[in-house]
Known about the structure:
The chain is an all-alpha fold. It has a domain at about 120-215. The chain has helices at about 5-10, 20-30, 35-45, 50-60, 65-75, 85-95, 100-115, 120-135, 135-150, 155-160, 170-180, 185-200, 205-215. The radius of gyration is 18 Å and the shape is globular.
Amino acid sequence: MTTEEKIIRLNEYNGISVLTEEDFLVLTELSFDKDSYIRSLVAPLLVDFINEKSKVILLRLAQDEDLLVRTEAYDSLAAFSFADVASFLETAVKAEKDYLARSYAILSWIDVSLSLHYDVSGNIVSLKKLKNKETSALCQLSYSYALYMCGENGMLEEILSFFMNDDYHVRCAAIALLGDIIDESNETHIKEAIAALLITEDTVAVKDRAQRFLKEN
């Protein structure tokens, strides 16, 4: 198959509810493709098919030499509530050199750990140590989110403080994470903070994300 044919074939899997044995053979083959873009397209397709075959492919892709491939795999692994996935992601958080990929690994690690009903006290200690050493604002945001999800309610103010970050990508990411946090206990405070952000924000992407947040929540 040509690269274009491979992309068309992968796009055909979007929206389907069942993967056959033949489908897994195709996805496995394409997950080894020499083109990193093709490999990166495989990971998102597996997020709705939580089984051993998907997990094996994703764990391998999460160790790929290409940044985009690893990032997509880390993101999809958030749905895989397995002890070995939690352990893998914890190791990946500590070893991943790229800040973008690391930020996704952090988020997926905490999602998987919480879904497994682990004792979060150990995670809190580890997360705080890692956060203190972190130099990337995006990863610091991810650690703040993870700690909040572990019951550290004071982290909400830290998450909101990222609205002041110079990088608009970080500001957008903060708004996105608040969508997973918002509930009756913090709804008013979060919405007031986003409304205040809209008064001073001049980046179109951030303003659009903030406006959509207020409409959807």
